[in-house]
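User: Show me an example of a complex going from sequences to structure tokens.

Assistant: Sure. Here are the input components:
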Amino acid sequence: MQLINPGLGLIFWMTLTFLLVLWVLGKYAWPAILKGLKEREESIQESLDAAKKAREQMAQLKADNEKLIAEAKEERDEILVEARKIKEKIIEEARGKAAIEADKIVESAREQIKLEKNAAIIELKNIVADYSIQIAEKILREELKDKKKQKEYVSSLLKEFSLN
Amino acid sequence: MTNKNIVSKSVIALLVLFLSFGFVLNAHASEENLIKHNKELKEKETEQESMDVGKLIIHHVSDGYEFHIFSVGKYHLTVPLPVILYDKGKWISFWSSEFHHHHGFYKGYYIAEDGMNAGKIVRKGPDGKETLPKYDLSITKTVFTLWVNSIILLIIVFITARSFKKRKGKAPKGVQSLMEPLIIFIRDEVALSSIGEKHYLKYTPYLLTLFFFILLNNLMGIIPFFPWGVGVDGNIGITAVMAVFTFIITTVSGNKHYWKDIFNTPGVPWWLKFPIPLMPIVEVMGMFTKPIVLAIRLFANMIAGHAVVLGFVALIFIFGKIGVGVGYGVSVVSVLFSVFLDILEVLISFIQAYVFVILSALYFGMAVEESH
């Protein structure tokens, strides 16, 4: 009977004690503990997430780097090819230009020469003509020194005409 | 890691062994006193030489007004506890040791030997019958141990709470790492899974308090020395109070759906509700049987372990009566069985604390469940 017939005092003290313990812990201990637990769980989750993100970023970065390097290589090759082309083109152009220039120079030289030659010819002609006139003058003067000879000559000339 | 495991395991094993041994010793000590007491009693009456094992066990697992530690010959070492009575319109307060100074009586009050009020303070009424004082608010040994355990509980939990504040953002350490898995278990596996995401945080502090309160009282109940040696949870008064708390919280938080399930249970033929409201009656009874069963389950489980350990110890003395050698022989077996039972009690302490809390959580879950 004793076992299932607890004293009123015990129930009273138990109720009081339990309420007190419940209140004190419920107000001052459990909220702090639950908050601490939650915070830590969150921080662990965040750390894990951050680590995962960092790993992903690293992978991304690495991929990016590789891509960048590949691109750079490609670009370098392209540049090299281009440069070679340009070089050849420049050489080609230079060569063409040089040829044209040379042609021009030769042409102009030829022109010059021609002009010089013509001038020389003209001058020579003039000189020759001058000389011819002078000689002719001198000859004529010599020839026509006396009147008799003049007459003779005129008459011979006339004779010639009349023959025609 | 493994090294630490082994160390902690052996420490626990040693502790359990020590505790059980202590229990046996303690039981032994008080035993002798009781046997003597009984002997004198019986000699006076019938001169029979047997001991009442049932009475002995009941005496050990029941509440008492004083803490009996040990007896050597005629000397009894007891810790007196205050007796507080309210009777005949006034408060009466004295130490329980007064009973011995006055040959069991103090101002007409004495502890009843048997009957309805066995073990309680009574007085002779005008009609010659034993009557209880109006209120008996004595600090009995259960109350005393309850307070000791409550203080230990407060200290442990506050150390944990402080660790959380002090060691913010750091790994748990010491008491904190002992408590943390249990707290997380109660929060996630008990509160969250039984009550649901929406309401569980409101009930978690109560469930945590309940769990650690029961667990600590269960575990401390295994220790046989002062200020323990009292199975606090092996007292129906203690478990009933906790069950009533669960009942009140369940009833107060019951929503429309909960009450509808009780008074107009869905999925039941109408003739079970009208004209004779059979189902409502059954459901309303269920509301009350749930906490009653909660209280009795914990109480019975905790008292059974103690009773069986005491039984094994009593065996030593029963056989000791046949012959001293037989008694020593039996003591080996008895001690081994007591050790086994005490280890089992550690397990039961956890299981019963868990069962009480998970059922409370399930009732709260039913009370706040939304209709689907």
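The lines above are the inputs; the final block is the predicted structure for all two components together. The radius of gyration of chain B is 24 Å.
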